[in-house]
Recover the amino acids of this structure.
C-alpha cells in the first residue's frame, strides 16, 4: 500500500521532495454508546482499515488535497491564508478544518502541503471515516511541521474541535481518541469526563467481531444526534438542582433512581436513564472481560441495544431486525446497534464456529424481512494512527 500510494502521489503531484505515508484507522465501539458527550465511559477499538495519506511540504503557502475516493471532486486547492469552510470543497473541508484548528491553537504551520488520501473504510458505515481523515491530517501536520510538543491526545482533541466548530457537527471525543490512541488486540476503556484511559486486552481467540451494514442510509443523523445532546443537557441541569454533578456519567443507577423525579419530562427521563445505565453497563462489561466472562460481556451488549432502542430511541427497524436475527443464532455472544444510530451498522461478537451461519442466516432473514442486502465485515483490531 505504501509504495503504491507514493507512486500515485508522484503521478498526481509530480517529482519533488521526499514523500511520507501515514495511516489512521477506523473504529468499532464494543459498548458505551452515546455516553461520550455525557461524561461517561466508552469501550472502542481501532480497526485495521482506515485512511492512508501520502504527503510532503511545499515551498509556498498552497494547500493541495486529493482523494482517490472522490476523484470526481478533483483537486481541492486552497492556501494557508484561505482556510474558511467552502461547500464546494466537499470532503476537503475535513483536512482544511484540522489545519485551521492547528492554526487557531497557535501551532506554527510554516509552509503549504500536498496530500493524497486513500481510505479503505467502506463508505457510510459510521465507523469513523471522517475522524480518521482528521486524525491522519493532524499527524501529518505534527510530523511535517516539527510540532514536537503536540501529543496524540492533542491531535484527537484538535480533530474533535475541527469536527465541532469547523464542520458544525456535535460529535464527542470517542472516534478521534480511539483512532489516535488505538492498540492492536486491545480496546480502550476511556473515561470521557477526564480522558483517563486504560487498554484492556482483547485478544479474542474463540470469537470474531462482525460489523453488519444494514444498508439503511442514515437519515438526519446530525439533527437527531444534536437533539439527544440537548435533551441530556437539560436533564442534567434539572438534576443539578438537587445533586452536585458535572455530568450524567457521574451517577450510579441507584443514585439516579433517587433523584430522577427532578426531570420534568418523560422523554428527558428516558434519555438520562440511558446515559446513566449505559455508562454503568460499560464499566461492568470491562470488569466482566477482565474476569474472562465473555458471556456477561455479550449480555451487556444486548442490554445496551435495548436501552438505545427503547430509552434513547436512536435505533430503527432495520437495526432492530439485524440484532433480533443475530440474537437467535447459537454462538452469538452479543449484538447491538453501533455508533450514532438511525441506520448504519450493528456490532456483534460471534464464536468462530458460528460465523458462517451468522452471515448466511442473518443475511437471508434480513433480506426476507426488509428487502435489503446486509453486508458483513469480519474485522480485526489494529493500532492507532502512525507514520508508515
Ligand atoms: C457518533 C459520534 C461519537 C459518539 C457516537 C455515539 O459516532 O461521533 O462521538 O457520540 O456517535 O456513541
Amino acid at each position: 500500500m505504501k509504495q503504491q500510494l507514493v507512486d500515485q502521489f508522484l503521478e498526481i503531484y509530480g517529482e519533488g521532495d521526499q514523500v511520507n505515508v501515514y495511516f489512521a484507522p477506523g473504529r468499532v465501539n464494543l459498548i458505551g454508546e452515546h455516553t461520550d458527550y455525557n461524561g461517561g465511559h466508552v469501550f472502542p477499538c481501532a480497526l485495521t482499515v482506515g485512511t492512508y495519506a501520502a504527503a510532503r511540504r511545499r515551498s509556498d503557502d498552497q494547500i493541495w488535497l486529493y482523494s482517490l475516493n472522490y476523484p470526481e471532486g478533483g483537486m481541492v486547492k486552497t492556501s494557508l491564508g484561505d482556510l474558511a469552510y467552502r461547500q464546494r470543497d466537499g470532503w476537503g473541508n475535513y483536512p482544511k478544518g484540522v489545519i485551521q484548528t492547528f492554526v487557531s491553537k497557535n501551532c506554527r504551520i510554516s509552509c503549504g502541503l500536498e496530500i493524497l488520501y486513500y481510505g479503505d473504510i467502506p463508505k457510510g458505515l459510521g465507523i469513523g471515516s471522517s475522524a480518521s481523515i482528521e486524525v491522519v491530517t493532524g499527524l501529518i501536520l505534527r510530523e511535517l511541521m516539527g510540532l514536537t510538543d503536540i501529543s496524540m491526545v492533542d491531535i484527537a482533541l484538535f480533530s474533535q474541535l475541527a469536527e465541532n466548530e469547523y464542520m458544525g457537527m456535535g460529535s464527542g471525543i470517542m472516534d478521534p481518541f480511539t483512532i489516535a490512541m488505538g492498540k492492536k488486540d486491545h480496546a480502550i476503556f476511556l473515561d470521557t469526563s477526564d480522558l483517563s484511559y486504560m487498554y484492556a486486552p482483547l485478544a479474542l481467540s474463540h470469537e470474531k467481531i462482525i460489523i453488519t451494514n444494514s444498508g439503511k442510509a442514515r437519515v438526519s443523523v446530525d439533527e437527531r444526534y444534536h437533539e439527544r445532546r440537548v435533551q441530556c443537557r437539560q436533564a442534567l441541569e434539572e438534576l443539578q438542582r438537587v445533586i452536585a454533578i458535572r455530568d450524567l456519567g457521574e451517577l450510579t443507577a441507584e443514585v439516579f433512581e433517587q433523584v430522577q423525579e427532578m426531570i420534568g419530562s418523560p422523554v428527558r427521563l428516558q434519555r438520562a436513564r440511558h446515559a446513566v445505565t449505559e455508562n454503568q453497563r460499560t464499566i461492568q462489561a470491562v470488569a466482566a472481560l477482565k474476569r474472562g466472562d465473555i458471556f456477561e460481556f455479550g449480555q451487556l451488549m444486548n442490554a445496551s441495544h435495548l436501552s438505545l432502542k427503547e430509552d434513547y430511541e436512536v435505533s430503527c427497524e432495520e437495526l432492530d431486525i439485524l440484532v433480533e436475527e443475530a440474537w437467535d443464532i447459537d454462538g452469538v455472544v452479543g449484538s447491538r446497534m453501533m455508533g450514532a444510530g438511525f441506520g448504519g451498522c450493528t456490532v456483534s461478537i460471534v464464536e468462530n464456529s458460528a460465523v458462517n451461519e451468522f452471515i448466511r442466516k442473518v443475511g437471508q432473514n434480513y433480506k426476507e424481512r426488509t428487502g435489503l442486502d446486509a453486508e458483513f465485515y469480519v474485522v480485526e483490531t489494529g493500532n492507532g494512527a502512525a507514520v508508515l
